[in-house]
Amino acid sequence: MDLSLLQDIPRFKEWHQLQELTGGNSRERKFRLVDGNGQSCILRISQVERFHLKHQEYANLVRLEPYGLCIPKPLQFGLCNGGSHLYMLLSWIEGTTVASLLPASSEEEQFQLGIQCGQTLRGLHDLSMVRSSIPWLERYQEIEEDILKKYHHSPIRLRNETSGLDYLQTHKHLLENRPLVIKHGDFHAANLICTPSKQIGIIDFDRCMISDPYEEFAILVWTAQKHPAFARGQIAGYFHHEIPHDFFPLLTYYITVYAFEHVSWALGYGKHGIDTIQKTAEDLIDLFENYTHFQPAWYR
């Protein structure tokens, strides 16, 4: 294992049990280690071109640290390898991913896990409320327009494209006067850790951004395909079993945008054929049965 890019990080020589981790985000290298104080840590190494994004991620963790959430503790941040890379040293969250627990869990156990994860997400959102001079409607329309532009320039046309676009066009009012939080951006079962004390920890904050808190739920569709009870539990836990009337219409909006986004993302990712990409995106829109239902099929 070549460790040359780490050697100018302060206190590098105090580290031991250094182990490179594989899988996950290919844009960075990750190492598990034990520091000079005997604390288990994760070290993340990125290209210096991502400095602004990674610094913002680190700043978000610093902001959240005083609240006692079960999230990685920020320890060090800076440049390394002669300034060509940056590093972020965080505390390690010990435990088992929720994703690995779900397959062997009963439907009721999945639901209860979902409730606990939903409560954890609500705690994160409640502690990260932000104010912005740019209304969410204006902010999100830029995101949406970029997604749809990429979709229209792609070689794929969805069978249910018209109904999806019509829903977006006629329901933009839902985006008005929305609260804003720092959303995690990748809140799914593989990024949730069930600790030995049965807390739910959250890892991988590298997609944080200012957002409507409801948008966080759009990626729940992937877990819901295999574990719908967990997905239902996450929603119930987040809202303490009292779901607001505007939640599902907004979730429908965000999942619809997500369907179009999936097309350009999957084409760029390059691991799936066009037919598979098209069917996956169409299935997301079909969850709402031509928009006769706001609740996705896995929730009803």
UniProtKB/TrEMBL annotation:
Stretches assigned to the Aminoglycoside phosphotransferase domain: 19-239
Q: Gene3D superfamilies in the record, alphabetically?
A: 3.90.1200.10
Which InterPro entries has this protein been placed in? Aminoglycoside_PTrfase, Kinase-like_dom_sf
Report the Pfam families cross-referenced here. Answer: APH
Q: What is this protein called?
A: Aminoglycoside phosphotransferase domain-containing protein
